[in-house]
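Ticket #4471: structure export looks truncated?
Reporter: QA, pipeline team
Priority: medium

Steps to reproduce: submit the single chain below to the structure queue and open the exported record.
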Amino acid sequence: MVLARIILGFLTVRPMTGYDLMRAFRSSASYFWSADKAQIYRTLARLVDDGHAHTEVIPGTEAPDRIEHHITDAGRAALIEWLASDPNHQPERDAFLARIFFAGSLETAALQRVIALRRDAAQTSLESLRSLRSDAPAADSATDRSAWLRSMTLDHGIRDTEAHISWLDELQTGLNREDHP
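Actual output as written to the record:
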């Protein structure tokens, strides 16, 4: 259900094709939600079936036709209901943390390699998020609340990734201590 509501949120920004939504997830939502092509298209079909979105075929000029998805009044109502609902925290599922939790028997060098790989990926993600931040126009809550809220979620993604990198550094430092068992 969350993916469907996120897609409805994107459709409030502008009508989008499935491809547009894949790009939107990669470029502006990847720090808080991910979805693959099959999930997006399956969810779009369900939103249309449920009456929360409708499609419009845009004839292609020297390209295939585009199928744009538009949010309906029922879709807006479902989105508003979800946005106003209690913000229940979803349990996090992170295979990396599960590995660390059980890695006591792993050789230190192998564990350091796993941590270094995760840190490299986090650093790449941080650079990508900072690039999004530098490319985004300044958002003021007084003039465009929606843009400002999107900007604030990007700030959260940046801060969260910075904290994760700091934690990984602390983990590496602890493994490198001479008195570590």
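Status: closed, not a bug. The export was complete when the record was re-opened. Leaving a note from the reviewer for reference: Strands lie at 53-58, 66-71.
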